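user: can you give me the structure for this one chain? C-alpha cells are fine.
assistant: on it. calling the predictor now.
[tool input]
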Amino acid sequence: MQNKIILASKSKVRKQILDKNNIESVVEPSNVDEEIIKISLLKEKASPEIISKNLAELKANKISMKKVDEIVLGADSVIDLDGDLISKPENREEAIKILRKLNGKSHYLISSVCISKNGSMIWNYTDKATLTMKSFSDDELRNYLSKIPDETLYAYNVYQIEGEGKNLFKSIEGDEDTIMGLPVKKIKEYIDSLK
C-alpha cells in the first residue's frame, strides 16, 4: 500500500484535516461542475445524502481514472434544511439569503467521502451533524458576513465552524471533522485496514 492518497478537492480545510491526522496526501482537484449534477439529481428527487455521496464518488472516480492503482479520496458536503438543499453562495447577497433561511432553525450538514481506485469506488461513508442556529437580526448577520473573506465564504459555505461561524450556533451535535467536510476517523480506519 502506498503511503500517499490523492485528495480530489481544493479545500484547504480538508487537506489540513488529513495533515493533522498524519494521512499523507497530494491535492489534485477534480473540478467537477457540482451545480449541474445537483440540479439533475434534484430533478430525480434524490435525497441530500444521495447527492452528497454521488458528488464525492464522482470527484474521486474522475481523478482515479487517470491514476493507476492509486487511492483517491473524494469528498462533498451539503446543507439540508427541511429537505431543501442549500448550496454554496456565489455572491454576498446569496450568502445573506442563506443565513436568513437558516436563522433560528436547525439543519443538517451532511458530509460524504469516497475512496476510489482505477476509476471505481472501493469504499464510501456518509455522516450527518445537526446544527441549530441562534436567532439574529439582519444587521447582525451582515456584520458576521463582513468578517468573512470572499475566498472562505465561497469555498466553505456561509459558515466556518472552526472560525467565526462557531458563534452562529446555539447547539452543534455531531463530529466537528464532519462539519468541516471530512469525517476523518472513518477514513483513517479504512486506510489502516488496507495496510
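assistant: here you go. Helices lie at 12-20, 34-43, 48-64, 92-102, 138-146, 150-155, 176-179, 184-194. The longest strand covers residues 120-133.
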